[in-house]
């Protein structure tokens, strides 16, 4: 069976599925029970360093915190990945987004939760 080896973080994926990150590998998207899992890296051509936390915004786009590349990336459907934040991030381990457009990033290096008021403007 195809799927993640050594899952690290799990979050809601697009269309009510799951998004699961693998340390030093990829992010896998799981849909309904009838759909096989798919690799976000294979779908987009994106090369992850070490994907940590994952979340999905209200539009169904996946957002990934990559601790090795020190960035947070948005994966919108039918478009290329967009780096939302890289400046000032040392060890991004957690990511969440609010319906109002705020992006929260947990930076474990300095113990801060960084809040960006409108991540859609960053894209």
TrEMBL record:
Q: Which SUPFAM superfamilies match?
A: Calcium-dependent phosphotriesterase
UniProt keyword list = Repeat
Pfam families in the cross-refs: NHL (PF01436)
Is-annotated flag, keyword Repeat? yes
NHL repeat windows: 89-119
Establish whether keyword Repeat is in the entry.
yes
Signal peptide, first to last residue? none
Q: What is this protein called?
A: NHL-repeat-containing protein 4
Source species of the chain: Delphinapterus leucas
